[in-house]
Amino acid sequence: xxxxxxxxxxxxxxxxxxxxxxxxxxxxxxxxxxxxxxxxxxxxxxxxxxxxxxxxxxxxxxxxxxxxxxxxxxxxxxxxxxxxxxxxxxxxxxxxxxxxxxxxxxxxxxxxxxxxxxxxxxxxxxxxxxxxxxxxxxxxxxxxxxxxxxxxxxxxxxxxxxxxxxxxxxxxxxxxxxxxxxxxxxxxxxxxxxxxxxxxxxxxxxxxxxxxxxxxxxxxxxxxxxxxxxxxxxxxxxxxxxxxxxxxxxxxxxxxxxxxxxxxxxxxxxxxxxxxxxxxxxxxxxxxxxxxxxxxxxxxxxxxxxxxxxxxxxxxxxxxxxxxxxxxxxxxxxxxxxxxxxxxxxxxxxxxxxxxxxxxxxxxxxxxxxxxxxxxxxxxxxxxxxxxxxxxxxxxxxxxxxxxxxxxxxxxxxxxxxxxxxxxxxxxxxxxxxxxxxxxxxxxxxxxxxxxxxxxxxxxxxxxxxxxxxxxxxxxxxxxxxxxxxxxxxxxxxxxxxxxxxxxxxxxxxxxxxxxxxxxxxxxxxxxxxxxxxxxxxxxxxxxxxxxxxxxxxxxxxxxxxxxxxxxxxxxxxxxxxxxxxxxxxxxxxxxxxxxxxxxxxxxxxxxxxxxxxxxxxxxxxxxxxxxx
Length: 629
Prior knowledge:
Strand order of the largest sheet: 20-21-22-26-25-24-23
Radius of gyration: 36 Å
Number of strands: 27
Strand content: 25-35%
Helix content: 25-40%
């Protein structure tokens, strides 16, 4: 994403700015030293501007932050461990930023990223246009020898070309001037400046918003020219110093601005170049050694550092929490609460700055994000933005674009889960939950999330389940039980616990709430609630699953938006090798009930064979009622 690239670029430009400041400070004591030292310093800065990562320091050299004991707030997890759970741990955590603050931050970040990209593209296009104009002037060049060409349409010599650099000279130069200029331009090629300057231009285009980069680019080009001046004078001999200076002075008067990455003879500060020629002396051995040491130290400081963290993560000095059922559910709930549909046809969410980590490394965070569209009445399409995606980092801000060409947006579903890998390709759910947004939508506002909860109330034979939904609303499912039956909740690792039905300590059945097959009001309103034919839009989340389903569906009580019925729940138990052809189907008595205007779930009561008579099952179904608290 562009935001991730921009954040990484900001990190790079911050580190490079310190390097530029250091080079500016070192240029003063090195002003009389050969300019090769200054060029080496600028090369290190250039690598920092273009390299998106740093070479990690050895573990013993990496600074470690130790939090003050007074600043730590102990947090102890006491939940009973589940399969794959980590042992009880202590960690310190601070409150996470509010979701709306994170939304504003990402919105500003995206705007800044687009401004940066626009500026970089404009600068690159301007440089490309200058190069194209220059090439038109070179249409009728005359080959002198080797890689040297003459032209009547240029005012100053220059080098052009990346892989096969060419030297272009004005045809009006006399033989003596050609010798001086060729020594300078050939020095550029030997030093590799025809590669370094295009790279410097690329760094300038990427970091155009940083004034220090502009200053560094200007001084680096000037030092590059001075270095070639020094090389050329050494090649031509000391007696040619005055003649070389005269040629430089004359050609600089007619030189034009450099066309991007080209190397023009007369660019840079002529006064500074002439002064450098006048005071140039051959350096002593200690000067060369000292200058090389300074360059090496600065290069190491710029290129070595702690391993770069994921750019989409929020820097934190807090201890990473270990994975427990409690920390997993807290992470899931916090992520779901940030789900936002943007008015710019985007959908986004944010992860907490610290993700719980399992001690064995086998349990990881997976995220699924789907959008559902209606193309026309009865015709639907889905967009899968994330399909059980892994490799998430703490503080990640995800933003995806909704494909509205598929139709009218009906809903967005985000599922966050921690999955444990039992063996290769085989996973077990450690903790999971989901949230689904349906029309009408609240745009640019995080939905907020209340983990769905189930509270059990029972008085004699009358039972009530109070369900707290993800948006904080509450609804009741009430029903009447046979004599001597009691209810108790059982955690299942899903979004809602199951309810066990017992009699004198004997398990009689289990009541669960399953998501409706669809939340599309138009589809649900077309359901004939009174017909004794299984309404698939209601029960498809289970009825369409492999090796399970419902048969013998009989409506016992119906109303406009729901019904209560009895049925047979069928399940196929696979053989050890997973073969289904020889497996037999098992049947279990079942009571089903739903009301889509009250709950986005349907109730499923599975009972042990012989636990209740057909009349008792029908009575339970007829007693089931839904209401909003």
